[in-house]
Amino acid sequence: MAPPSPPSPAAALPLDVEAVRRQFPALAQTINDQPLRYLDSAATSLRLRAALDAARSIDEHDAGNVHRAVHRLGIAATARFEAAREAVRGFLGAAHGDEVVFTAGATASLNLVAQGLARTRLQPGDEVLVSVLEHHANLVPWHLACAERGARLVPIPLDGSGQIDLDRYAALLGPRTRVVAVAHASNVLGTITPVAEMARLAHARGAVVVVDGAQAVAHLPVDVQALGCDFYAFSGHKLFAPTGAGVLYGRRDLLATLPPWQGGGHMITSVAFGEVRFAQPPARFEAGTPAIAAVVGLGAAIAWINDLGWPAIAAHKHALAAHALAALQAVPGLRLLSTAAPRVPVFAFTLAGVHPHDIATLLGEEGLAIRAGHHCAEPLHHALGIAASARASLSIYSTAAEVDALAVALAGAAALFAGRGRS
Amino acid sequence: MNPALAALYQGVILEHAQAPRHQGPLADATHHARVDNPLCGDRVTMRLRLSDGRIEAARFEGHGCAIALASASMLAGLVEGRDATEARALGAELERLLGDDAAHAAADRARLGDLVALEGTRAFPTRIRCATLPWEALRRALESAGS
User: Fold this and answer.
1) Is residue A212 in some structural domain?
2) Which of A252, A282, A306 is the last residue of a domain?
3) Angle between helices A400-417 and A356-364 (to 10 degrees)
4) How many domains does chain A have?
5) Co-location of A369 and A301 in the same domain
6) Pair A37, A101 in one domain
7) Which one of the listed residues A376, A400, A411, A416 is annotated catalytic?
8) pLDDT value at A129 more than 90
9) Count of Cβ atoms closer than 10 Å to residue A200 Cβ
10) Sign of the C-alpha dihedral, residues A380, A385, A389, A392?
11) What is the structure's pLDDT at B41?
């Protein structure tokens, strides 16, 4: 008799969304007597109770500084801080804990790597390839790096569906290409970019691959080794943790080639007026007291995600994204900037006759929190020929009912501006 | 619609936003300036034809939300035919209307005409900039060297 087969991970129990929602204290509020429908998770996710509790217990109990104190508070804080590093290592599939640098956020991570690569890899006439769909956080640091070194910033174009145009990307890679910087997922279009293929092509030319994972980490499992990227950046606050902490993953051998970014305590091995010796990574890049509570909160958020499991999370997001695509496309006058699939549940759109800023104000007063503007992706909006868009972005705590309320409110906003609505 | 929203999107605002007046090019403009709002991507260019310190014509171009369009439409209409000095005084009055509480109380509403409707933005701090963007473009146009 054959032994019973182990349960398949794909057969995971469906996500209990109501139970998930109870773990996010901010959802308990009302706006103008309407329930909060938080549809702006791409800007910042709501904070998880367990992450907040972990952070608070640092500040209320294990309140010492990390890596310095020999007293019990410092020992406890350091142990929890380093446990968070190990949690991030596992979360990203990194080979070594010392490949995980804690920063102030994805923006700080990308500035760190851009300035480090500028000083070590960029010469006049060299090229940095950056995709058109980038958030300014993965564009402006490269602009600064190129300006400083006399290098060229080259846009990687998109195809008609809002995806990286791989053929044209491959043609852009050349002997002067030193860096390729790309988002893992677009904060506007929701597209998931072909990072692994892009990295393979870039490495064949000897270029370094930097990935902005800010919009991906809450939605899909990341394996930096499978992706083959050299650097990967994200922020804790987009992963249910408090603001103030971020991560830069860097491949061990490459991280070791980067010069210090900011000088200060902890990033040295010895200091004299004549000579400063710098610590090995990650300490070399962690000058000063870090956001200890936020980092420990991030570790707690990752533990919670691991408990839920990606199969259940992915199934929920997939169903939600399909529902949202259908519901939004049914709104008269609404045009989605991208209908790409698979995608992260981020939906930017325009609504005929109503400016995005007006949509966001009208909906905001009904408790529907959405974003309007260019979402820090101005070149993408230029490429699409529009000045601004509205954006609804969903997360693990989002429901189909919230999406339906959004669709109804959008139809109401369109009617108001067409002169047919309530006055 | 709640009272704050009704005040923000009152009839005169929606009318101007849906059919802006004084919008378009001004071929013989003597002064012009463009202002962007990086928060939402709004952009307003204000063009003026000045003669002996008098604004003979004011036209705006650009794109923006209902508040920005209505503000530009009303402002251009209000300053046409006035001296640059008067236009600056109107702008200062608008800034008082949308400024801190003390200044707001002192604002001379009567001089502002329909622009008073922009008062509705006070309940939405991120939208005040939408209302003042056209005035900033006008102010900078007046400061421009002339062309």
Assistant:
1) yes
2) A306
3) 120
4) 2
5) no
6) no
7) A376
8) yes
9) 13
10) negative
11) 76
* Residues A191 and A233 placed together within one structural domain of the fold: yes
Query: pLDDT of A269-291, one tens digit each?
Result: 999 999 999 999 999 999 999 99
- As a whole number of angstroms, the distance between CA A286 and CA A78 comes to 14
Residue A4 lies in a domain: no
Q: Which residue range forms the structural domain that includes residue A119?
A: 51-306
Compute the average pLDDT of residues B76-101: 94
Name chain B contacts of A361, Cβ cutoff 8 Å.
5, 8, 124, 127
Structure tokens at A160: 């008609």
B34: pLDDT confidence band, cut at 50, 70 and 90?
very high
Place of tokens 């000058």: A287
Query: Are A157 and A278 contained in the same domain?
Result: yes
Q: Any residues with CB less than 8 A from the CB of B82 and at least 6 apart, and which? A: B54, B55, B90
Query: For chain B, what's the residue count?
Result: 147
Contact across the interface for B41 and A388, Cβ inside 8 Å: yes
Give the residue numbers spanning the domain of B15: 3-142
Count of residues in chain A = 423
For residue B41, the SS3 value is: coil
| Residue with tokens 């922009």, as numbered in its chain | B118
Say how far apart CA A332 and CA A351 lie, in whole Å: 8
Q: Which residues pair with A210 in a beta bridge?
A: A181, A231
Q: Using CB atoms and an 8 Å cut-off, which of residues 22-81 of chain A contact chain B?
A: 32
> What pTM, to 2 d.p., does this model score?
0.92
How many other β-carbons are positioned within 10 Å of the β-carbon of residue A34? 14
Task: Report chain A's C-alpha Rg in angstroms.
Answer: 22
pLDDT, residue A12, reads: 55
| Range of lowest pLDDT (A52-61, A332-341, B61-70, B99-108) | B99-108
